[in-house]
Amino acid sequence: MGNITISIKNCKNIKNGNITILKNKLNVKYGNNGTGKSTIAEAIKYYIEKNENGLNALKSYDTNLKPTIQIDTNIKSVEVFNEDFIKNIVFNKDEAIIDSFNIFIRNPEFDTKRNEIDNSLKGLKVDILEDREIKKMMDVFTLIISKISFNNDGSITKKGIGKDILNDLTVYNLPDELNKYQNFFHDDKRVDWVDWKSSGKKFDDKGICPFCAEKLNHETYQKEKDIFENSYNKTMVKNQKELEDYLVSLEPYINDEDYERIFGYTKKLENKDDFNSEFKRFCDEAGDVYRKITKVTSFDTHNIKLEELDKLEEKIRELLIKKEFFKIFNNQKSMEIYNLINDKVNFILGRIDTLKKDFKKINSYIGNAIEESEKDINDFLKTANINYRFELNPTSELSSLAKLKYCCPSKQLYDVNNIDGSLSWGEKNSIALILFMYYSLQKDADLIILDDPISSFDKDKKFAILYRLFGVEKISKTFNDRTIILLTHDLEPIIDLKTKNYFKNSKGVGWHISNENGDLNEKEIDAEKDIIPTIMMYREDYMDKSLDIVYRVVALRKYLEYTKKNCIYENVPYNILSSLIKGRPRSEVNMLGNGIIHDPEFNKGCIEIQRYLDYPEFDYEHLVETDFSKEKIIDKYENEANNYKKIQLFRAYYDGNRKDTKKINRDNPVIKKFVDESYHIENDYTHCLDYRKFDIVPHAIMEEVNELMSDFIMNSTSIAQ
Asked: Domains (ranges, CATH) in the chain?
């Protein structure tokens, strides 16, 4: 357990701030848009991943100071749910999520079962791969196969050493004029000698030999030179020498008769067609030996599916080398190697029943893991009312393909080839979140950050995702007891800390975060004390005699809106309070849609208000002239510290002036919407954060309201003068 303290400086709109994280808990950070929540997520990720370029990219625009972040605890890994995760990890064409085998199936239990099978095959692989003679044989075969190729018609491809294999001239059938150089042509260093001799012609224009400085017989020298230049060059001699060397290295594995015949072609090529056919057979057999041994050393059960289990013995028997098939590579040494390999294969065949059991166990484990993951995710999709189904299809023992299928009303499933283009925004985020849970748990991240994951979901989807991430007890894949940061501008997760039992295992805790001119501040929310039923909050406020009468009237009006049916059109006290807030004279107090409220109803309504407020001195006309007058509202505004209450006063002020109301409607629709909604219940949750303790008004809104109010006051003062 314990706390983690994170200090952030000069990152985008955060000049300075500290946040606290409780280990092994859900840490809900609630704040308005523009607070810097995504910046917090990015800065933490870049710091933990030591991504200096990413962190530097967060530099604030209005400073040259370097972005910095400090974390007082060693956090080795972090996973973040944000747009980058959706863009890079999920919904790639027809694949729901990359690396699905490792995410949904592979874990320590799987690796243990896998190692049991690997150990069974270890002797077969390791002994063969580490045997010196087999390794030497494979190295030689690799060289000859890589250097010589054949065309579709079976002829030798004329590239590399193949270009000079069929040359009539070799160093063993020299023209008469060059016989005196026979010792040099047959020497192991012949390639260097030919290169040296070819280079000397550059210096033979002085009438003397460029090698011994003796006077040249021009006619004889020129004839030798022409024959040499037209017959031999370094590349040709090098290619023919390489072929000889390859054949010599293969001699230990070829029977004597075939070796003498094949090697003889390098000295004297009488019939090119015979040689091409013979050499093709030789190379094909070398390739067959190489591929057969490679198949043995690379054999594994990884690519065998459960339904192929009955064929496991057959597949292993196919690894046995049938020695009678080889007519060239069949001398004693080759046979010893084949016998060694076959002995290893037969040993495995002797344990075939055990191998089958182990193989069946691991495939059964894979099947169970797939079934569990599919059921879990599909149960979530049904709960969230998302008409898609998740499928996990194994493609081998160590790979799988995760797909989404559309489920139509008839329950028929259809393939989705373009997942990203088929899902709505809400479906995409919902499915991505459940996949992210599996992904981050498989990574075993020390810290998991959810960057505003559910703010735009409807209530059903919010419940489905939060319950699945934090509420399920009888399943291993959950965020319970993980260190989680949930950054959100949606109050509902904070409310759920108090009202929903699906957070109980995650031990959730909430904070309210705010940003004022770059200073990031957070205040811990006590869900039991600070999250209050909205109706109770209004009731407490209208009954609180210590509060100014303006705030009590506003609270009572909202309380009536909550508790009285159709109060706007039918409730007299509600409409009296509305008229009072707007500063209307008694003669203009009306019921919306029903005209002026006459005295009997008006008086009765005022008596009800007196009872609600326990305020016998409630006098509508007096209050209009005093507490709700423009001058008094201005005075209250200038002396009020609580921004939520200032919003109430601002609304009361401009509502009492048609000119100001029109200006707000015309020039500041965003401000008007925010202020109006603070007066009505349309967007209220059943619970709310105690606005008496927390500054819930966005800083940008408050700045603009203060500026507007200053203009109103200035204009009012000018008119009065």
From this structure: 1-77+446-525 (3.40.50.300), 159-270 (no CATH), 531-720 (no CATH)
Tell me if 58 sits within 8 A of 42, measured CB to CB: yes
Cβ atoms 427, 388 nearer than 8 A: yes
3-state secondary structure 124-175: HHHHHHHCHHHHHHHHHHHHHHHHCCECCCCCECCCCCHHHHCCCCCCCCCC
Measure CA 127 to chain center: 41
Question: Which of 104, 101, 113, 119 minimizes the C-alpha distance to 361?
Answer: 113
Task: Yes or no: say if 633 and 647 are a contact pair by the CB < 8 Å rule.
Answer: no
In degrees, rounded to 5, the angle at the alpha carbon of residue 163 between the alpha carbons of residues 160 and 167 is 145
- Written as six digits, the tokens of 146 are 């890589």
Q: According to the model, what pLDDT value does residue 309 have?
A: 63
What is the three-class DSSP state of 676? helix
Per-block mean pLDDT, blocks of 10 residues, the chain (721 long):
89 95 92 92 95 94 91 94 93 93 87 74 64 85 84 85 80 87 88 85 74 77 85 87 87 90 82 84 88 81 60 84 90 90 85 80 85 92 91 84 93 91 89 95 95 79 82 78 91 78 70 92 90 90 95 94 88 94 92 88 95 94 94 92 90 78 76 67 68 86 87 70 49
Distance CA 231, CA 692 (A): 103
Phi, psi (degrees; rounded to nearest 5) at 67: -65, 135
Q: Which residues is 254 bridged to in the sheet?
A: none
- Which helix or strand (DSSP H or E) is residue 394 part of? strand 388-396
Whether 81 contacts 451, CB under 8 Å: yes
Cβ(387)–Cβ(407) below 8 Å: yes
- CB-based contact 499:468 (threshold 8 Å): no
Contact 520, 19 (CB under 8 A): yes
Two tokens at 171?
């160093």
Q: How far apart, in whole angstroms, are the C-alpha atoms of residue 433 and residue 431?
A: 5
Whole-number pLDDT of residue 682: 42
Q: Which residues contact 412 (CB under 8 A, 6 or more apart)?
A: none
* Residue keyed to tokens 């999520």: 97
